[in-house]
Amino acid sequence: MASPTTPRWAALARDTNETKIQLALNIDGGAFPPDTDARLFKSDDAHASQSSKSQTIALNTGIGFLDHMLHALAKHAGWSLAINCQGDLHIDDHHTAEDVCIALGTAYKKALGTPVGVARFGYAYAPLDEALSRAVVDLSNRPYAVIDLGLKREFLGQLSCEMVPHCFESFAQAAHITLHVHCLHGFNDHHRAESAFKAMAVAIRQAASHVKGKEGEVPSTKGTLSAYLIQREKARSTTYCFRPLYLPQTGFTLFSYEKPYPNNRHLRKSKHSATLRYLTRPTKQHLASPAPPILYMSTEGDKPAVGAGDAAGASKPQQNGQARGAPAAAAAAPAGEKKLSGAELKKKAKEEKAARRLQAKAVQTAAACGCGCSRRGRQGQGQAGRRRRRRPPWKQNGAQDGGGGASQAQGDGARVLQPPIHGEAHEHYTGRQGCSIPFYLQHNLEKKGDVFAKACSKVIESYTTPHGATLSRHLTSVVLKNQIDYLTACRPMCFSMGNAIRWLKLQISKIDIDLPDADAKKALCEAIDTYINERITLADMVIVKTAADMLTDDDVVVTYGRHHLVERALLRARGRRFRVIIVDDPFERVGLAHAQRLSAAGIPVAYSHDLGALRTNLQGATCVLVAAEAMFSNGAVYARAGTCDIATVARDLCLRVVALCESINFTERVSADSLTYNEIDPERNSSDAFRLLFDTTTDKFISMVVTELGNSSAKSVPAILRKLEEL
């Protein structure tokens, strides 16, 4: 335990095949400890040296820029620091920079001792000309680092820029501190890096400073900072899994949960993870239901065998040439039983796998039924004479967590699908986060492309490239493929999502395989944000402005249902003397709320709840304003069911029909009917009849198409697609 009068110093010598380091540190400045390695004082060619009444600094790592940064760190932290390093610089700078920072962190932890009577927390801002950095330090004994410097150059002197944040991470790991360093702005990489080191120096000096009147007190609600809360070093090469293991000897069920830290860059590199285990008495549900599948996300070795390492708390890789089920079967075999051969073990594993599949299928069928009984049985319980209304999939039990079923169709035949329990589907797609893909039909396509792009960004941020793979290949072929398969199994993919997927795959394929993962993911996320702003947000603004400018005084506008582009255009045009007639969808009364919003804005509105008086409503109109969910290359408009009826009558009355559509919804496909690309309303789908959600209007009924690229005819879709490819 260090007191204000006890010197907080440490000295060490770290010799490896890569580097030979001698280091002495005094946190409070002044003299060095008496056990300092003699080789340290023989070095007289220090790149950065300074001696004053309170500090002595002498640094010679062989990398001039690293000496410069450590000099700034020691000076502003108030340390006396001496470092001499002989590293394998003929290879590169990695070993030298990393080992020096590890040695410095180790010496700092040794010199600090138990953090008693200190402030523990420290934060600081440090400017250097145009650059400004912020650092936050916690002497928590929990190694964690989040570093964001935004360096763009390849080298700073003889130090590669990728090693600068790695130096912070190595120091934090060895010193067992929590460290956050962010460069807020600046365009000179030298200034950005130096301001970051200076900010960390001031913050760590503040954290290690003694607090008057708190002598002997531990700055923690736990009462100690010396014990590890999580033994991270013992959790290397772990596997993400959650499964129950019934222990017949004790009558308990052991639940093992091992998960890597997905949002921590420095922990991702070393694949540290935390392990949580707890015991519980087995219940009927545990014994009757099959064990959930093991999800292997990222490991350094092969996938562990089922049951291997459960009692020890760590997973072990499979041995080469051994069947997958062999370790589990061998472990489960009682003593004295005849040992099975490899072929017999493999056959037994296949039989167990088939049995688990049948059991899982039975459980899934029972869950889809809802109460475990058949439909015929339910009808026999006093409901034979009453027709039950089908509940939409988003209202089914379990739909909140992405497990609900969905009745849907695509093509000329109906298909009823239930979203699979997809082990590789990310939480931002399955609905366990707020950024899930919506299934509500009234908002099915208006925000689906935007939400899908944002979910892709979340997946990329939490992605870690497995050992031996490259981001540009593994991310597309494995990770995104699983997410896309999950979404298409839940519901047919809209055209904007298809275009976004093709664009994202193209951007991933352009990534250099030598680019660091952090830079690659940052570039992809920035590209996705730009894509959303340009192709969705700004496109909507331009379309709304163009459509609003087309309206003049004394116009009578007829619109169908509700679409956010049409509503925003009409609201933008308020102040002019025009009237709106809203013909609502007879099945989905979305136009009523649309009429209420327009009326509240002071726009005269007439509302018709169905298509019965369509010709009468159109006789006094001057134009028809509709929104397209997609545009085919032959000029056909894909929109809400009923749009074609309005366009047909409007053409007979010689009215102008204007369709609003973003270019992200343009497709190279051709459609000549309303059955090839469509969906069935799951709420109105029975053996007698069903309702399609969309229809197709041919180009001859469309007078003009308004996009963010301007006004054009429906026949101009191929030209617009070619222009988009050039952009």
How does this structure look, described?
By secondary structure, the protein is an alpha/beta fold. Among the domains are: 9-208, Imidazole glycerol phosphate dehydratase, domain 1 (Ribosomal Protein S5, domain 2), CATH 3.30.230; 427-535, no CATH class; 551-726, Translation initiation factor eif-2b, domain 2 (Rossmann fold, 3-Layer(aba) Sandwich). A seven-stranded mixed sheet has the order 19-18-17-20-23-27-28, with helices on both faces. A five-stranded mixed sheet has the order 1-2-5-4-3, covered by helices on one side. The longest helix has 34 residues, at 517-550. The model is unreliable at 227-336, 368-423 and 428-444 (pLDDT under 50).
In short:
The protein contains 20 helices and 28 strands. With 727 residues, it is α/β, with parallel strands linked by helices. Strands 19-18-17-20-23-27-28 form a seven-stranded mixed sheet, sandwiched between helices. A five-stranded mixed sheet has the order 1-2-5-4-3, covered by helices on one side. A four-stranded mixed sheet has the order 6-7-11-8.
